[in-house]
Specification:
Elements lengths: L2 H8 L13 E2 L2 E2 L2 H4 L29 H11 L18 H13 L4 E5 L2 H12 L4 E7 L3 H13 L3 E6 L4 H11 L3 E8 L11 H11 L7 E4 L17 E5 L13 E5 L1 H14 L5 H12 L1 H20 L4 E5 L9 H9 L6 E6 L3 H10 L4 E2 L9 E3 L11 H7 L5 E5 L5 H13 L2
Parallel strand pairs: 4-5, 4-6, 6-7, 7-8, 12-13
Antiparallel strand pairs: 1-2, 3-9, 8-9, 10-11, 11-14, 13-14
Helix pairs in contact: 4-10, 5-6, 5-9, 7-8, 11-15, 13-15
Bound molecules: pyridoxal-5'-phosphate.
Pyridoxal-5'-phosphate binds next to helix 5.
Length: 435
């Protein structure tokens, strides 16, 4: 049934915009970078405006009472897939829907959801999937706020957790999943590469282990792809079911917004959407509009940042004041991590760990001497950022755990931006003279 005939029969309004615009030309499937300019938006519906207007409204007018009822069937989950039309801005809006259509394209996901932050995306995912007594099995370490959410907050509601190290082998993953399988595993949650160790998770091994150990209902595998996605890693292809993003980082890419995203098949996305509809963790229309702007240059920005990082890391790795550069482009050929990298990644990203010779004094002298790179936490923006994990993001982590994770006083975290690579190298070269 076409949208139009269905609409006539039910009295619902036809979709107010084409679900998909041009996806193919002459049999050629268009690339995501091309589709970011027009997909999901019809200028005819907005006075010919080339760019979508920002829809600042809290609610939407129904064309008829029957249409309103039908929309609510979608919002409340009586009918899966969300509302056919727009209802109320806690549920969705035009800017967010266009964003969701475009976000899904990068990883070939069936559906996607936009959120007010990476953490609200992760929290909504967890709340939609777990109940008291369930276990979340996760790779470790995770982004600090995600660890807090699992252990301290969900723990208060009787949710358990078990973890394995990010670089774990199939045998080590099997051992943890087998142990967890005696209880009810609601979700397997991964983050790759782990921060700041850069250890990659073998998603293929996790999926194979899950399929071997869980004979009946299989817990979904969700993965935080903020560091490498969507350009350099697409974990749905390795068997993950749900991909999570802090869109604040590379996807937003200009260090001027906070947002999150979740991608996956329709069934999982419908489950998570119902929770988002209930608690209102959707991003606002202005942020969605900003992200549409960002996605148009995502491939350009990430490609340039990745190329810059190769050059900067090549310079740093041979510098006499540098002890070690923890960068995915320098994995030892033949190592297990290199094997995962070759199977899972198409690029090494632009965020890495720089270990200087010395300790906090040397690290601080270096950081305080940088002129182009800004001293700030976060990553994935157009500008290069540098920070000191031991003294900043991981300050409250107990000493023993810091040592285990390699968060030493001589560690500097760097996220390379899209500046001129030689200018960046000069900045690092001069700053190293001050050490
Ligand atoms: C930043 C970040 C988050 C949290 O995202 P916010 O947008 O700050 O809420 C989650 N995971 C990773 C890997 C991140 O880098």
């Amino acid at each position: 049934m076409t949208d139009e005939t269905e609409a006539e029969l039910t009295g619902a309004a036809p979709r107010r915009r084409p679900k998909a615009s041009v996806e193919k030309i002459g049999g050629r499937k268009l690339k995501p970078s091309t589709m970011m300019m027009g997909h999901g938006y019809d200028p005819v519906l907005s006075e010919g405006s080339l760019k979508p207007p920002i829809f600042l409204t809290s609610t939407f007018v129904f064309p008829s009472a029957a249409a309103g009822k039908r929309h609510f069937e979608g919002v409340t989950g009586k009918r899966p897939g969300g509302a056919d039309g727009l209802v109320y801005s806690r549920f969705n809006g035009p800017n967010q829907e266009i964003l969701e259509d475009r976000l899904g394209i990068w990883e070939g996901a069936e559906d996607a959801l936009a959120f007010s932050s990476g953490m609200s995306a992760i929290a909504t995912l967890f709340l939609s999937m777990v109940k008291p007594g369930d276990t979340i099995v996760h790779s470790g370490p995770l982004y600090a706020a995600t660890e807090t959410l699992i252990a301290r907050i969900l723990g208060r509601f009787g949710v358990h957790w078990l973890d394995f190290p990010a670089g774990a082998t199939r045998e080590e993953i099997d051992a943890v999943l087998s142990k967890a399988a005696s209880g009810n595993v609601a979700l397997i949650y991964l983050e790759s590469p782990a921060n700041p160790t850069n250890a990659l998770v073998d998603v293929e091994a996790v999926a194979a282990s899950r399929d071997a150990i869980f004979k009946g209902a299989k817990p979904p595998i969700a993965i935080d792809n903020t560091f490498l996605g969507p350009l350099w890693a697409q974990p749905l292809k390795q068997g993950a079911d749900i991909v999570v993003y802090s869109l604040t980082k590379y996807a937003g890419g200009h260090s001027d917004l906070v947002a999150g995203g979740v991608l996956g098949n329709k069934e999982h996305i419908n489950t998570i959407r119902l929770m988002r509809n209930t608690i209102g963790t959707i991003c606002d229309p202005h942020t969605a509009w900003m992200l549409l702007r960002s996605l148009e240059t995502l491939e350009l920005r990430m490609s340039r940042a990745g190329e810059n990082a190769v050059k900067v890391c090549e310079f740093l790795r041979t510098h006499p004041k540098v002890e070690h550069v923890g960068y995915l482009g320098f994995l030892e050929e033949g190592s297990r991590q290199a094997d995962i990298y070759n199977r899972h990644c198409t690029g090494a990203g632009s965020t890495f760990s720089l270990y200087l010779k010395g300790g906090e004094k040397e690290a601080f002298a270096f950081l305080d001497s940088l002129k182009i790179a800004k001293l700030a936490v976060s990553l994935g923006g157009t500008e290069t950022l540098a920070s000191h994990p031991a003294g900043m993001t991981h300050l409250s982590v107990p000493e023993a755990r810091k040592q285990a994770l390699g968060i030493t006083d001589n560690l500097v975290r760097i996220s390379i931006g899209v500046e001129d690579a030689d200018d960046l190298i000069s900045d690092f070269e001069e700053a190293l003279k001050a050490v």
